[in-house]
Amino acid sequence: QAPDSFPPLRNEAAVQVLRGRMKGIQGHCNSCYMDAALFSLFSCTSVLDSMLFKPFPLCDRNVQSILRDEIVNPLRKTGFVQARSVMHLREQLTDKGQCSSFTTAEKDPEEFLNLIMQQILGIEPLLKLQSGGRKEQDCYCYQIFMDKQEDLVVPDVQQLVEHSFLSSNLKLVEIPSCFIIQMPRFGKEYKMFSKIIPSLELDITDLLLDSPRECCVCGDVATLECS
Fold first, then answer.
1. Residue that finishes a domain, picked among 120, 153, 179
2. Taking 80 as the threshold, does the pLDDT of residue 187 lie above it?
3. One cellular component GO annotation, for this chain's record (predicted)?
């Protein structure tokens, strides 16, 4: 355990601490979905550090301390988290949630995020989406759904998000404080893309609802949008 607080790893420090053998979060008993999610959310960014410290209205302080002291701080301090620490968290999620298989079965990352953010920590939804003028929908993360695109062989995240929003007729109602995106995946037998290039910055200008944008013909403020 690392009870002291450690900032997220950046630049050269991230390379030195996280690269090499016995680095990252140790997998055990179908924990890969949770290991990858926790690593992505906390290793190199502080945008969700409120989950570790803030006493939310519904916050379970035991789960919060396990997450902070047994997983996030050791990851940032030494670059390694033992499988038993993640199992400790999974046991708590099994006790608090309605599902008894968090310690044994592989889950969808969205199911894990919804449970820990909404039911255990009581965090407000991070995203507000609207589809085709219908009622707003609140959620904690966005999973990319799209049909196979022949022209996208090795896409980047920017392309995938734009294609997914366009095909689903979705818009962001407001700029999110944190935009968690789940990549498309299709199990062991078939994967839509063998590789996806991370976009280090994400331009959401065209994804925002009623956002003023430039006309691509005359340069003035646009009044119409063609999909």
1. 120
2. no
3. microtubule
Among the ranges 26-40, 58-72, 187-201, which has the highest mean pLDDT value? 26-40
Q: Give the Å distances, CA to CA, from 117 to 16, 89, 123.
A: 31, 13, 5
Same domain, 133 and 115: no
pLDDT band at 133 (very low <50, low <70, confident <90, very high): confident
Burial 153-189 (b: 16+ CB within 10 A, else e): eebebbbbbbbbbeeeebbbeeeeeebbbbbbeeeee
Q: How far is CA 189 from CA 97, 168, 186, 194, 219, in A?
A: 31, 26, 7, 12, 47
Q: Where are the alpha helices (DSSP H) in the chain?
A: 11-18, 32-42, 50-53, 61-65, 73-78, 83-96, 109-114, 157-167
Q: Which of 89, 120, 151 is the C-terminal boundary of a domain?
A: 120
Phi and psi at residue 140, to the nearest 5°:
-100, -25
- Domain with 27, as residue range(s), is 11-120
pTM: 0.86
